[in-house]
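Page 47, continued from p. 46.
Same chain as before, 460 aa.
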Amino acid sequence: MIVNFAERAHNHNWELDPVTRSLLDTDFYKLLMLQFIWKHYPKTRVSFSLFNRSARGPVDTFAHEELVEQLDHARKVRFRKSELVWLAGNTFYGRRGIFEPAFLEWLERDFRLSDYELSVKDGRFHLSFDGLWSNTTMWELYSLSIINELRTRANLKRLSEFGLDILYARAKTKLWNKIERLRGIPNLSVADFGTRRRHSFLWQEYVVEAMAANLGNGFTGTSNAFLAHKHDLEAIGTNAHEIPMVLAALAPDDAALKASQYHVLELWQNTYEGVLRIMLPDTFGTTQFLEGAPDWAADWTGQRVDSKDPYIAGDEYIEWLRARGRDPRDKLLIASDALDVDDILGLHAYFGGTLARGVTPADFASAEDFRDKRKWTPGRRIRFSAGWGTLLTNDFRGCDPSGDTGFDPISLISKVSSVEGHPAVKLSDNYAKALGPPAEIERYRSIFGTVGVSNIPVIA
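Result:
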């Protein structure tokens, strides 16, 4: 696909260019979680809130009215019959029929996005969604992609058509340099995880097509369900922090709160099989999660690492599996937090037992990029896969010919803030990523502990 990004951005004369073109324009895991919610918690009420973890805010770059128009448009969009047919008949992770007929009928007949509340305070948007969990959960991805793209469009308006040409030429060159470093790497496994903080829908589509065309089997698919559907790619994704946050908030006492993280696993494995059983243990801290996890959890397909140093988290998971008599080489480790090409190459070499092109084992004793503190271990230790997000679909750093940093990505998130009137909390393995009222965060830490938690700068 050849897109003249500069011409399209410069000649922007239509009344509304919708960001949310389809309700499939979301991460695949949101659809899996939506079915889980519909099945197990159809009457639970929650609130989602927007959080900006960056110093910069998007409010001063685009008008309040533009956001209202896009949010109102998203509420009017419905699942198309062709999309529901794809969900019903396509094979996901080697299995057909993952989505139940009754659930798909509900999507077509009853699914609606909840209303929203929007205000501006101290130069920041305050955006929240309140209602049934099944009607609010999908707002997470739609709201984030809307705000990020409106921010992009506002910055594009600053540039002349020639400036736009330069911007996209530099971004394409940067993208190609990254892809070129990954080409030909044996047993590479990289997926696009970049929907929520993408530069724009069209840029994400361009990136996904470029990856698919140049990495062959090394590109395993995209988390974006719409792009997977349109381009016949594998849809990638399983679950996120949202479910354990909600179940924890519903817990009646401290003991039930501690146990809720494992109740999530029980419900999930009653809903999904095989490769869809990927643990995300860091909602309240990975180390404590693994220490108390039931033995049968070691039979799950693998683990996704989000907020912990992936080298440390991977080693921790490998040792946990070995202690329970499981062969780590049969398991899958997915890293997904703020990755870029150096991280992907280093982690692939460290866990996969294959050296990146131009790298020798000796480099691991000195090169900071490849963790000089670690010894080279030949042979695959675990199956490694990278979920490449913001720095794949929104790395325009240094591309603006004016020298402005307005295109630099910001760490914008939308998370559950309350459940049936109770505050929701996320601790994570990174103190900087904790969410919730300070008093509740401290209560959760007194219950779950802080072993293995560290302070890591939040990039995106």
